Amino acid sequence: MDMKTEPLRLYRDGGIWKGAFDAMANPCEVLMDGCDQSHAWKWLKIVAHEAWRIEKKYSRYRADSVLSRINRSQGQTTNIDEETARLLAACDLMYQISDGRFDPTSGALARVWHFGSGQAARNRLPRKRDVEKILPFVGWDKVSWSQTSVCLPPGVELDFGGIGKEYAVDRAGRLISLVGAENVLINFGGDILALGPATDGSPWKIGLEAVDRDSAVAGGKVVLLSQGGLATSGNVRRFIEYDGKRFGHILNPLTGWPVRGAPRSVTVAASTCSEAGMLSTLAMLNGKDAETCLAGQCEQFWVQW
After folding, report:
1. What pLDDT is recorded for position 245?
2. 197 near 185, Cβ under 8 Å?
3. In which domain, by residue range, is 107 found?
4. Do 10 and 45 share a domain, yes or no?
5. H or E element: which one contains 292?
6. Using CA atoms, how far apart are residues 104 and 94, in angstroms rounded to an integer?
C-alpha cells in the first residue's frame, strides 16, 4: 500500500515502512521495521515535527527564529532557555577542543564567501581585503554567555549549522524511543542515527557517496550500522574552483580562508549522531592531519581525499 500525504510521505518497501519529509534544506527519511502502519505514522510524525521545531527555532534564515532574535540584539543581552544554553555549551566545547578552529560565529564569513552551484560562483574568490574586513566579527571568545543569557557584540552572529542537524537527529531518536521505537533508522540528509538493527538482527546498510570516479569508495562502499550515529563532513558538493585549485566551503575562522589540505570527505561512526558530527567536523578542520586527529578517538571512520 502506498500512503502519501504532504508534507509527510509514508510507504511500504518490502517489510519496512519508509517515511519521508523535507527539513533543514535536506531530504529526511525514517526507516521503520517490525511495526504496523499506525505506529509508523506515529513515529514519522514525531520525528518530522521535532525536526521542524528545531529548524523553526534555530534557523538563521528565519526572521522569527530564536537565533535570529539573538543575532539582531546589537550588543544587548538576550535571555535564553535551557535548550539554547545546551547548544551554546556544545559550541563552546567544540571551540575549545578544536583550538578555535570550530567557531559558531564564523557564519559571518558567508558575507564574502559564496559557494553556489553555478559556474560563475565556482570561479570567483573574495578579495583578501574583503575577507579581512569580516574577521573582526568572527570569534567565539567575543561572546558572553551563561545558562540564562547570551550577549553578542554588534556585528557578531551565531550559526548552529555545524551542530544543529546532528542535534535534531538525536533529539528525534530519543523522542520516538520513549514511545517504543526500536528497529528504526533516522536519516537527515546524511546525518544518521540507528536505534537498533532490523528485526532479524541484520544491520542497516548505508552507502557512502564517492567523491569522484577514482575514489576508494567508488563502486559502492557500504557501512553497516546497527546502533548509534553516523555523520559526514566534506567539500564534495560545495566548493569553488579557481585557477586550477579547489577551495572547499569549510573555512578556517582564524584566517577566513578554506582549510588547507582538507580531505574531500570524512565519515565517522559514534555512539550518537552529535558525537559523530563533532568528530567528522574536527577531522576536516585539521586538514591534512584529519586521519591522525581521528586515530584513537573512534574505531570506525572513512576518509576520502
Report:
1. 84
2. no
3. 72-151
4. yes
5. helix 290-294
6. 9
Residues 205, 183: Cα–Cα separation, whole Å: 13
Based on the fold, state whether residues 120 and 268 are members of the same structural domain: no
Distances (CA, A) of 180 to 26, 40, 167, 168, 175: 26, 11, 20, 19, 9
- 124: CATH: 1.10.3980.10
**What are the cell numbers at 52?**
521542524
pLDDT, one tens digit per residue, over 90-146 is: 999 999 999 999 999 998 999 999 886 555 455 689 999 999 999 999 999 999 999
Residues whose CB is less than 8 angstroms from the CB of residue 48 and which lie 6 or more positions away in sequence, other chains included: 7, 8, 19, 21, 23, 28
What is the tally of structural domains in the chain? 3
Q: What is the band of 298 on the pLDDT scale with cuts at 50, 70, 90?
A: confident
How much of the chain is in helix, strand and coil states, percent to nearest 5? 35, 25, 40
> In the structure grid, which three cell numbers stand for residue 13, read together?
518497501
One domain for residues 54 and 88: no
Q: Is residue 67 part of a domain?
A: no
Cα 182 to its chain centre, rounded Å, is: 23
pLDDT over 60 (residue 246): yes
Question: Is residue 285 one of the residues assigned to a domain?
Answer: yes
Cell digits of residue 62: 528565519
The identity of residue 299, as a single letter, is E
pLDDT digits (tens, 9 = 90+) for 23-50: 999 999 999 999 999 999 999 999 999 9
Closest Cα partner for 81 from 146, 145, 143, 148?
A: 148
DSSP conformational letter for 272: S
